[in-house]
């Protein structure tokens, strides 16, 4: 960790998908800052919580939850607030970028994709806003993706949701700014999580993507963590309604 954000100590943070991949790195990063972290995901994360408790002396609150179940998601936010105080940092990280051919998408797949990648984000934001207002402010970081900026093919439902996340972020920033709530989006580039390595990171694909980047290093989880911590902290106190790409410069090149 290169930076310390002292105002995040004791902050009540809620991370969706916070037990694996980038989400696990986010949970780790917030705990390292001294925040109280709650996170949701479907799969069991007990072993990860044991690891975090051993590392930081503080155990994250894991709440099993399918984020497409809005009632369960709202209940999880309430449980986190009861345990740690009103959520003042929300990170909407959970997503599913399953590849799909447009002509093969049916209504059921479309609804499932939007439920994970957009609908859950909206209702997570809705669920924390009243508590943030009462606390005198807060920070929301919505994960988008550079995929829609690049016009990537092969997952149009996913890129549609990412574009909508950026638009929603700007509207929420305008609507709740007077309450001291900042809402920003973060668009990662190709972060080489284990899932990405297992599914898509062929030597040819990696070489082609690196050629597009201005900075000639592949992204890792920590690159996203520190940018998220910055947006969550008062170091970015006058930033809201923004979408920041952390991608090594791909969208700069792509134009």
From TrEMBL:
The keyword Lyase does not apply. Residues 11-190 form the Ketoreductase domain. Keywords: Oxidoreductase. InterPro entries: KR_dom, NAD(P)-bd_dom_sf, SDR_fam. It holds the Pfam family adh_short_C2. PANTHER family: OXIDOREDUCTASE, SHORT-CHAIN DEHYDROGENASE/REDUCTASE FAMILY (AFU_ORTHOLOGUE AFUA_5G02870), SHORT-CHAIN DEHYDROGENASE_REDUCTASE FAMILY PROTEIN. This is SDR family NAD(P)-dependent oxidoreductase.
